[in-house]
């Protein structure tokens, strides 16, 4: 019988790691940390030159696998390649976009970008990775969501919706994956200093550096945690808002953020 997937801890000896959104920010830092921990990492993003430079600097420990996560055939081909070359032990589906929008700015095109990359883009990589792991009854899948998925946050109507969907998706899939020996984990970062958050025009509470975020993610995957959420105090605070009725939550949030003066 397969080991319970909930208890599976991926190790470099089990195969290779794959990370999407690896050319910058959190993904690039996680790829670096995985290499430090002995992994061979396939790195995916659209920027071929950046990936090639990272691979060249890694002494063969990072392997460029360029691709757009919105292209399901490309994601399937990357997974097939990794499985054939080294075996896929760990898949971190991290690529994402963030475009803050007020209600007046909310538009179809930018909303669709979030859904295509953050949600369908994750599904495009998840499906081939999950099928590959299910045939072997082992492996670890990690979805990069966000604390913004816990409750609606200002200007994050489209972004937060994709992250809430990923949280739900990971929980739902865990039911069937665990008895088959496959682990699924959810990564919920708070604010991390990257190109994505450089557009924010407010002081980001508990802002974390990418190296520290990467350490939390890679260390968290070496435990049997379902959810790796950080900074812990910020994540706990936002999660505790789930217990508030929506009307109170929105009223309190508007007051705390000074929006009642709008
Ligand atoms: N930064 C934060 O505060 C924070 C907080 C919570 C959650 N997150 C989540 O963490 C993940 C990484 O965020 P980040 O801040 O590191 O973002 P980032 O610095 O903007 O990097 C985004 C990465 O995704 C890749 N990407 C974007 N669209 C892609 C596509 N269509 N196909 C393939 N790759 C694509 C980018 O590479 P190319 O442009 O080369 O394709 C880049 O490598 C995202 O899912 C984000 O939502 C971030």
Task: Summarize this structure briefly.
This protein has 262 residues and is an alpha/beta fold. It has eight helices and seven strands, in the order βαβαβαβαβαβαβαα.
Assign an overall shape: globular
**Helical amount:** 40-55%
> Can you count the beta strands?
7
Portion in strands = 5-15%
* Main sheet: strand order: 3-2-1-4-5-6-7
Helical run tally: 8
Q: What is the C-alpha radius of gyration, as a whole number of Å?
A: 18 Å
The CATH topology comes to Rossmann fold
State mean pLDDT (0 to 100 scale). Answer: 96
Q: Could you say what the CATH architecture is?
A: 3-Layer(aba) Sandwich
CATH homologous superfamily heading: NAD(P)-binding Rossmann-like Domain
Q: Mind summarizing the main beta sheet?
A: 7 strands, parallel
Distinct ligand kinds: NADP nicotinamide-adenine-dinucleotide phosphate
Distance between the termini: 60 Å
- What is the highest CATH level, the class? Alpha Beta
């Amino acid at each position: 019988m397969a080991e319970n997937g909930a208890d599976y801890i991926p190790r470099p000896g089990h195969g290779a790691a794959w990370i999407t959104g690896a050319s910058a920010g959190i993904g690039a830092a996680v790829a670096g940390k995985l290499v430090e921990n002995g992994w061979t990492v396939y790195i995916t993003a659209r920027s071929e030159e950046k990936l090639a430079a990272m691979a060249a600097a890694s002494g063969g420990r990072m392997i460029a696998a360029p691709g757009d996560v919105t292209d399901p055939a490309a994601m399937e081909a990357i997974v097939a390649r990794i499985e054939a070359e080294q075996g896929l032990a760990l898949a971190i589906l991290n690529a994402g976009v963030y475009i803050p929008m007020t209600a007046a700015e909310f538009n179809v095109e930018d909303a669709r970008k979030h859904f295509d990359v953050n949600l369908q883009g994750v599904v495009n990589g998840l499906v081939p990775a999950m099928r590959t792991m299910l045939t072997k009854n082992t492996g670890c899948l990690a979805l990069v969501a966000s604390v913004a998925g816990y409750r609606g946050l200002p200007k994050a109507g489209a972004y937060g919706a994709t992250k809430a969907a990923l949280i739900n998706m990971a929980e739902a899939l865990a039911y069937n994956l665990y008895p088959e020996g496959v682990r699924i984990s959810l990564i919920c970062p708070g604010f991390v200093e990257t190109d994505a958050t450089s557009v924010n025009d407010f002081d980001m509470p508990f802002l974390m550096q990418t190296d520290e975020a990467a350490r939390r993610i890679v260390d968290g995957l070496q435990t049997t945690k379902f959810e790796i959420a950080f900074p812990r105090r910020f994540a706990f605070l936002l999660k505790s808002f789930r217990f508030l009725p929506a009307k109170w939550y929105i009223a309190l949030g508007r007051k705390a953020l000074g929006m009642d003066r709008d």
